[in-house]
User: What shape does this take?
Amino acid sequence: MEQKYIFITGGVVSSLGKGIVTSSLGALLRARGIRVTAVKIDPYINVDAGTMRPYEHGEVFVTADGAETDLDIGTYERFLNSDLSRAHNITTGQVYQAVISKERRGEYLAQTVQVIPHVTDEIQARIDQASIDSRGQHAEVVLVEVGGTVGDIESLPFLEAIRQMRFAKGFGNTLYLHVTLLPFLSTSQELKTKPTQHSVATLRSVGIQPDAIVLRSERPAPEDIRDKLALFTNVEPSGVFSSYNSEHIYAVPEMLEQQGLGRFVEKRLGLEKVTPELGGWQRAVHTLRHPNSEVSIGIIGKYVAMPDAYLSLTEALVHAGIANKAQVNLRWVNAEELIEDSLAQLSELDGILVPGGFGVRGIEGKVQAAKVAREQHIPFLGICLGMQVAVIDYARHVAGLAGANSTEFDAYTPHPVIDLMPEQLELADMGGTMRLGNWPMKLKQGTRLHELYTPGSDDTALERHRHRYEVNPKYVQQLEQAGLTISGTTPGMKGRGVGLVEAIELADHPFFVGVQSHPEFGSRLARPSPPFKGFIAAALSHQAINLTLPPLTLNTQDVS
Ligand code: GLN
Assistant: This one.
């Protein structure tokens, strides 16, 4: 079978949820047994998302092979239930870097190097490269999402490249899908089609006539609106779909399937007609709509006003909630505001999670949160930086190492329990100082983490990493003697990192686990992350115990 391509563009405004539409379409094809993959094009000049501010751009997603990518790659992985690689996030920066390097090496044989054909050829070559997986297998359908909005100057070379691909791959093997906004004007109580008409006109001006349109709106688009748009945009009526606001993103694949998107794509690309297997999605959405219980989890972070900065984390909590038939209610706690007075609010939580992060801001609040969780026996999960602050608390308040800290926050700490390792500095020679991507962790038998992962006979589990600092091996013995369990260590990779601390836990606590990795990146609906699943189960038990206790009598002053 010839490879098929679906190109997804966006119109009118950004943040439409194009990534969800792309991922949902991928899920519908996947549910038909089709080998599908997805590529995200980001027209910014950054080479990758690693250097971008999560507050503005959302989380930096890390692939198994260690690329720092756009968060849409995470959504693709979760909806397609497959691991993607660095090849799946193409940026202007990468394309130009490659073209300029080739030019310097003389590979263009003294030609004038231009956007067309050199840059557009490079883009096409990269899309083709991403369509082959690590085992050399070609995807049957490749979804290519062009970031940004049609009409942006910076996306023009990418639109030109995908326009050319219709000629390279053939009409029957390519489909253009345009996702636009259908705004609702409350004053006139109307859904307005004009922005979509203009957006399609702009797309046509660069030579692309969409085959299908997905209208993003607050409420479902009625048939007359869809027919009107079909007429104005030259798209057949059966190719206009409505993606309206849904309480749960995992309900979107079925919403689009019910409107015939899957069948439309099958017909248009000449794929076999198949009834999709959507049982897994339906069961997940059913649990989300009818949970048996609720838990409240506090996330002690820095970017609490921008939940997208913690997207994989919140999705991992949703997956773990579904696995425990519970609704997970998130309570965002700004670590910088967590001072003595406000620490009391943590006692009301069923679980405390300290996520990953960089920089000193809010650090003391996070250390305090770990201390409260430890002392009050509240289930605790520390991810990456979250594990590091748990170690700092333990060193300071249990192991008697006053002033213990990470050298990331205090270069002159008397006890650098978290520190840079010489090998991290070696990595600097290779252009980066971070431990990135999949690294194995060897789990200690008899620990909670070992039980949660149930690893094979080698006792190892693979998780993705993104960090520079490590628990300082010089302090490990002292911490262990003070009662900290080291439940995971690195068996090493390529001769590096042998014996570094990967995970910690406390034995005399209902659930106190810290991991140096980011298990949230690998969590899926069908495969919830083991530490997250265990954490939510513990939070449910904690809640059950709390309910049996008499209510707290608050020590308030009588002011009457
Ligand atoms: N800042 C810490 C480090 O670099 C933790 C990083 C993280 O949480 N991703 O080690």
